[in-house]
Structure formats: C-alpha cells, structure tokens
C-alpha cells in the first residue's frame, strides 16, 4: 500500500490539532508551569522519559505505537488567544497576567524527542521516548503524549496477540467501531489494530485516512427487513457477457433453489422467503460482492440453501459470489457443515467457484476463543473481531508514565516506598542485544555518555527485578533502539504510513523468540542497567537519607 498522499497527511495533522489541542491536558500541568515561570526556572533544560511498568495482558511483550501522532502534535503545538483566555478563567486570580503572554508565545521549537521507532516490540521499564527541552514546555506535554501513546500501544499489542492466536494465514477483520469508547477510540483502534496485524477494517473513515482495506456487506437487519419475493426490485440482472436482454433473476434463482433442495434432501417449506428476498435484492445490487449473513433464521434449513441458490444463479450469469458470514452458534461446526454443502454443489453442478467461497466467522470473538478455534476442526477463512479487541477487555490501560530524569544536566530520581514506582535517573541510551540466532535477549539501559556495547565483547549489567546481582552477557549484535524524531520544531524522521508500520511490527515480532511470544506464561524478557547507571542509582539512594538533615544545617 502506498504512503499517504500530501492531502491525507494534511487531514491527519488537522485531525491531531482538533483531537489533541494544547488544552487537552490536566490542570496541574499549567499550575506547575506557572510555578516554574514564577521562580524563573521555566527555561531550565530538562529531560523526561516515557515508559510502562508491566507488559500488558500478562504477556511477554508490547508494541510501541502512537509516535506518528505525537510528532504531529509537537509540530502543531501552540496556544490560541481563545485558549489563553480560557486559562485566565480557570487558573487562580492571583496568577500574574504576564504568564498568559508567556503561554501565548510557546511552541515546541526548543523540544527534542528521541524515540523507539513506531511498531517496535518493546518491554516493561525500557524508556521508549525521551523528551528534552525547556522545563515548563516539556512539563506541559506530559498528559497529551501519554494519551497518544497509552491506548495506541495497548490496542496494537492486543491486535498482535489476536494475530498470534489466529496464526499467520487466517484473515482478520476489525469491526469494533460501534463498541469503542467514543469516535476517537474507534478510529484509533481501527488504525492500530491494522498496524498490530489485522488485515481489514469495517471503519470507512479509517480506510479514508490511513489506507486500510475496508470490508463489510450486510447486517441481520437487512435480511429481516424483507418478508416476501414481491419486495425484490428490480427483479432482473444483466449477464456478465452483456447480453442485451436482462434475465429474470428471481425465476432463475427459484429454479436453482429447487435443485439445491433436491441435492441436499432439504425441506422447501422450512426456507424463509424473506431471507431469500434479501439475498436476491442484495445480489442484484452487488452481483460481484455477494457475501450475506446466513444465520438470521436457520443456517442449515434456510440460510445456506438460499445462499447456494442465489450464488449458483450468479455463477450462471458469469459472476463470482464471495462467500457467507456466520454470526451465532457453534461457528466451527457450522463452518464445516457449510463447507461440505459448498463442496457438494461444486461437484454435483460442476461449479468450480464454489471451491473458493470464503466463510467469515463473527460472534463476540475473544483471544481465548480465537485460540480455541485453532484447536477445533473448522473451515473459517476470515474472523471478525469487535468488542474484545477495541476495548481491550483483559486490560483497559497500559499504564504508561512520564517521569523527570534530568534538570540542568543533573540526574533526578523519584524514590518511592514502592520500589516498582521508583525511577531510573539520568539521560540514557537504550540498546537491544541480539544472540547468534538473531533473537533479542536483553535490552540494556545505560547512561547517554557511556560508550555503546560492542558485538562479540562481554559486558556486565544488572537485570531489573532481580536481587541486585550482575550478570555477564556477550551479544552477537547490538542495535541502538532510540533515534531522534523531532528537533527545532520539525519532524526529523520520516512519517510512515499504517502499512509501513504494520510491516515493521511483523518484522520485529518475527525476530522475537517464541518463548517470549507465548500467550500464556511467556518467559520474561530481560531489561538491565549498565554498571555505571546502576552505580548512579545506588549513589543517589544512599545520598537521599543523608540529605534529610538540611533543616538542622546553619
């Protein structure tokens, strides 16, 4: 798929400005910015990091997503007169009026962002993004950046898990717009589930903005809206060979229906006339795209019979019907039964098209039911997933955080009574160490001033979450994970289309060892601190208690 056109890119940037204006943040960002400004600290150089503490869904990995939108947000960041006037009304009356003039002049021209590439497999505690710039500005960016990364990465990771559960061959259709948490949640879900491994979306706007293939035919409401064949209009269809005389499509289909019932020894009186009328009407409207839902009444007694009759009539006129959708009951068993009917029709009527008809399954599919699908005999070619995909029912939030690690070139550390909430100080570099088989086995977090690890040379490091003991590792390959993506008000790394990022996801996942991709009880991937960074953490922890007697100093 081609990269987005300049017109589409413009639409995306306008969409970001509308969806994520500078006021889409928490009030305390402005009160802190004011306090920095009041103290004359607002221009101090500062560095924040964005990361998450635990891999989602009790899994072994996550996918990093949302960078594209973050970059567009930074590029368009500024306060309008209307924004500033509103802030005057909500900030305390004692706020110095000059602060609002300061806000009006703010942009991200002094901000630099270094990031893991979008679509990369990532792990808990690894700093994904580094945001450096004037203290007041980078503080104001916190909530918006978290909002853009948290859900995008979560739903992208969820989609990747569904893809792993489904296997590489089965097509996956995202159809969760109506179940999503609002319009923006639905649009974000369509985009990032495609990036995470889904092939298609039902969301038309997502297709327009992101170039995602769009799919869909009919709902049960269309089928049940018909009651009799008298409601079918027009009643004729022109053959593919463009013969001038239209064919009476109803009569043609009724003839085929009798032959299908005879072949399958079915009872014609159990066939629902309204369902047949719906199928006929839709086939006449879209003879090249005939794929109805066949479980509005009874799949075996009506739906599959009506489909076969209409499909055989289409084939006689030179068209190629697409297939059927099953949306209730035992999808595996029904798919096997339906496929058997297709094979019988193909053989008995010598219609090869029936050998390539697809079966779509949709019925409140979860990750667990997707996994179980592969354990049972079934003939489902495409699976449609909605609620459990876009709402991430197993885990509603990724829990990304944005923490200060340096001010004025000096490391800063949050020391918490809960060790899991303590942060790692200092400006850093992140390296991915790869073994001789090409599998990543450890992400090394080091101080930015340290030399990079070298392939083939042993190094000592301290894995996080262990008993503070070091290990020695020797990488076969070393990759620097983060790269500059934004500087001096400009995006410095090419913006990728959804299709390009999707390819990055698949490439990144393929390198990951299967033991880390297991959906149940995966092996933990190691993230470690370099010796120098570990020493810095230890030094700050030791020094924190000695600094507590400042009240006693002269």
Strand order of the largest sheet: 14-13-1-5-3-20-21
- Name the assembly state: single chain
State the share of residues found in helices, binned by percent.
40-55%
End-to-end gap: 69 Å
Mean pLDDT comes to 94
Largest sheet: 7 strands, antiparallel
General shape: elongated
Structural class: alpha+beta
Radius of gyration over all CA atoms, rounded: 29 Å
Separate helix tally: 19
Strand content: 15-25%
DSSP summary, beta strand count: 22
Task: Report the uncertain regions.
Answer: 1-5
SSE topology sketch:
Blueprint lengths: L5 H14 L7 H12 L6 E8 L9 E2 L3 H10 L4 H10 L6 H8 L7 E4 L5 E2 L6 E6 H6 L1 H25 L4 E4 L7 H15 L3 E2 L2 H7 L9 H5 L11 E2 L9 E2 H16 L8 H13 L13 H18 L6 E4 L4 H19 L8 E4 L5 H9 L6 E4 L1 H4 L9 E8 L2 E2 L16 E7 L5 E8 L11 E5 L7 E3 L3 E4 L2 E5 L2 E2 L6 H14 L2 H4 L8 E5 H16 L8
Helix pairs in contact: 1-3, 3-7, 4-5, 7-8, 7-15, 8-17, 11-13, 12-13, 13-14
Structural write-up:
It is a single chain. Helices cover 41% and strands 17% of the residues. It is of the alpha+beta class and 554 residues long. The strands form five sheets. A seven-stranded antiparallel β-sheet has the order 14-13-1-5-3-20-21. α1 (6-19) crosses α3 and α3 (67-76) runs antiparallel to α7 (142-166). The longest helix is centred in the first third of the chain and has 25 residues, at 142-166. The model is unreliable at 1-5 (pLDDT under 50).
